[in-house]
Q: What sequence folds into this?
């Protein structure tokens, strides 16, 4: 079990294959489900940058950049200086990926990471940052619903136009 920002997460412990993710029960939002686990080898907690690239889909350049800007600080190094990522690092990267999907600016993600490192005294500020991002996401979802309605209307229009009887000119 690993902990991200005070929340416990389980990591696969029995196989190297990703666990199939069951469909949420009827009426339950897929977004309400926990994050999907990375397909990680059993009993390992040290990964090279190339393995992390394979697990996350991020590029090595992006991982190095995250480290440089403070979004991924304190990555362990081997005796030869190679980066060694832990399961906790992979969990953090999964969370950062979710923040990226929200459209949160990188500067806010870095600020969140800084607050996290400062400890429990920053709970309120972290909560405010996440609540602000949540409001932005809700606004974007509403905009996308409106956009979807327009697209559906146009699709119905074109489907109806094709099925209407042809007009013959006399």
A:
């Amino acid at each position: 079990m690993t902990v991200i920002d005070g929340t416990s997460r389980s990591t696969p412990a029995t196989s190297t294959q990703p666990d199939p993710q069951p469909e949420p029960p009827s009426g339950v939002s897929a977004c309400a489900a926990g994050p999907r686990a990375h397909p990680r080898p059993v009993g390992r907690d040290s990964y090279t940058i190339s393995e992390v690239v394979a697990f996350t889909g991020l590029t090595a350049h992006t991982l190095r950049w995250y480290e440089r800007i403070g979004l991924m600080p304190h990555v362990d190094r081997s005796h030869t200086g190679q980066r060694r990522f832990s399961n906790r690092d992979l969990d953090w990267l999964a969370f950062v990926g979710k923040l990226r999907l929200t459209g949160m600016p990188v500067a806010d993600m870095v600020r969140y990471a800084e607050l996290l490192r400062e400890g429990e005294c920053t709970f309120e500020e972290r909560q405010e940052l996440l609540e602000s991002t949540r409001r932005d996401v809700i606004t974007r979802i509403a905009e996308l619903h409106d956009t979807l309605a327009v697209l559906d209307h146009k699709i119905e229009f074109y489907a109806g136009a094709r099925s209407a009887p042809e007009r013959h000119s006399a």
